[in-house]
Amino acid sequence: MSELKKHSIEVKNLSIGYKNKTVANNISFSMEPGQLCAIVGVNGVGKSTLLRTLGKLQPKLSGDIEINGKTLERHSSFELAKTLSFVLTEQPASKNLTVQELIALGRQPYTNWIGTLTIEDKRQVEESLSSFLLKKLRNNKCHELSDGQLQRVLIARAMAQDTPLILLDEPTTHLDLYHKVQILKLLQQLAHTKQKTIIFTTHEIDLAIQLCDKILILDGKVNPSGTPSELIEQKHFEQLFPSEMVQFDAKTGSFKVNK
Amino acid sequence: MHSIKPYRISFALIALALCFAWLLNISSGSVAIPFEAMLSVLTGSTAEVDSWNYIIWNYRIPKAFTAVLVGGGLSISGLLMQTLFRNPLAGPFVLGISSGASLGAALVLMSASFISGIASFTFINDISMAIAASLGSFLVLLVVMLVANRVKDTMALLIIGLMFGSITAALVSVLAYFSSAEDLQRFIFWSFGSVGNLSSQQVMLLSGVVFLGLLLSVLSIKKLNAFLLGENYAQSLGVSLKKSRLIIIIATGLLAGGITAFAGPIAFIGLAVPHLTRQIFDTMEHRVLIPAVFLYGAILMLFCDTIAQLPNSANVLPINAITSLVGAPVVIWLLVRKRKMLF
């Protein structure tokens, strides 16, 4: 079945890192439209680097990245802005923007030289506002928001950019459990209803197992990917952390601390 | 983003304020001219006293025009720097850009005696002044930009700007030590700042430089808005970082450098006006801010110049002193009242 579907992103034998330091290599995976995918792994294994490389914010070392059947390098920066959008860990430079203003900036790839919003642009902004439960906050300044609210604003901005691919770097850090689940459920909904491919890095493995269609485990060696149940069956989560500290419980799909 | 519409009334008010500040500026000076006489001169008829006509058309109107260019231009350069460096305390004076322009100007002014020994300069001297000052500010801007890419800390950036100020000030004093008393005096007068005493050629040259800077700023509006999200986000929105950064730096260099060449290093306008503007126009949208900041800067400069003229007395105060007296408390007030300055 999966061979018949068109891949929205396909990565083959990718190496990532910096000029004099390879962070990770041997990364291969593919994603289809309408899938929510988590990248998990221990700290420093290269999750953020991978995400930045996929979005051309930094160059790859070797290997292939194909987005919608076209290699990443052949996308112009203008095309890329209509192909993938980002939610980064960094805070927006100016928090004096209102929620609506910040989300409307996502429409930049579509607006004219001075950034005038058309009716279609305004409709997209409205849709993003309502999808991420931000209608009441639209005129609030970003410095007035809580962490969870600001994260929703940043994701809504990426949604307004209306790209088939959305990349998010640790969208759930600093949030409580309720807001973590809220964000991930909204992402799941977005992926499934709008047929978007959404890739995010996270440390919430148990939540990812419950909510994602696909998971990529960066372990620095095999880097397996697949549906959560496939990965559980193949016992990939067991090897993620040193077993003397935590152990994976395949029945519940969660980690237990060794006592 | 919001369109300009909600700000129509504010724009109308601020334009009205500009007209008022302009009239006030023209009506004050060392020669007392009655307001009615001034109005009649402005509407085309001749005044009772011949010299009034001359003073208004050949001195006060060019001076008011220069004040508009200087105030508006410097404020825009401050706005560009605050957005580019993501720093609410950035401005041409704070980041050492004015100092760079001073160094360029000092080199031209104080070596003038050497050069004029070879050939006599008047107009060429103006152009070389403008070029030297623009180059000086552009150079400092580039270095600050390079450092800013390495040092993410905004405080460090400001301190580095201050250090550049000190270095250029030191170089200027070395130059001053070796230059003739006459050149030195010219430099000191220049450093007091003034929007008057510009020849029509100089006014034209200044208008050209400011216009070019403003044009580049207007063309960068969309990019400036993207920079509000940070550079990575801007890049992901399709903004070419290198190109847009360079255009914004050139615009800033032209505005800050060109203006400093002709009007002297004028303090605080560039830093304070964008913040003052946001008290009325509560937005970050550069489509609104660029015209608003220009108008606000022009008003403040006209106002400062009016005070500097000490109405109806023969004395003229250095305008730099006035802008500092007005600008510095504004910055302190903003910091204290808002705790942290947001940009």
Task: Explain what the structure shows.
Chain A has a six-stranded mixed sheet with strand order 6-7-8-3-9-10, with helices on both faces. The longest helix of chain A has 18 residues, at 177-194. With 259 residues, chain A is α/β, with parallel strands linked by helices. In chain A, strand 7 (165-168), helix 6 (177-194) and strand 8 form a beta-alpha-beta unit. Chain A is built from eight helices and twelve strands. Chain A has helices at 47-54, 77-81, 99-104, 119-131, 147-160, 177-194, 205-211, 228-233, and strands at residues 9-18, 21-31, 36-41, 62-67, 70-71, 84-87, 165-168, 197-201, 214-218, 225-226, 246-249, 254-257. In chain B, 50% of the residues are buried. By secondary structure, chain B is an all-alpha fold. The model of chain B has no long low-confidence stretch (mean pLDDT 85). Classes of the chains: A alpha/beta (259), B mainly alpha (343).
Please tell me what the overall shape of chain A is. globular
Q: How many structural domains of chain B?
A: 1
Percentage of residues assigned to helices of chain A? 25-40%
How many strands in all of chain B?
Answer: 0
Keywords:
heterodimer; A: 259 residues; alpha/beta; Rossmann fold; 2 domains; six-stranded mixed beta sheet; 24% strand; globular; B: 343 residues; mainly alpha; ABC transporter involved in vitamin B12 uptake, BtuC; 15 helices; 76% helix
Structure summarized in a few sentences:
The complex is a heterodimer of chains A (259) and B (343). Chain A has helices at residues 47-54, 77-81, 99-104, 119-131, 147-160, 177-194, 205-211, 228-233, and strands spanning 9-18, 21-31, 36-41, 62-67, 70-71, 84-87, 165-168, 197-201, 214-218, 225-226, 246-249, 254-257. Chain A is an alpha/beta fold and 259 residues long.
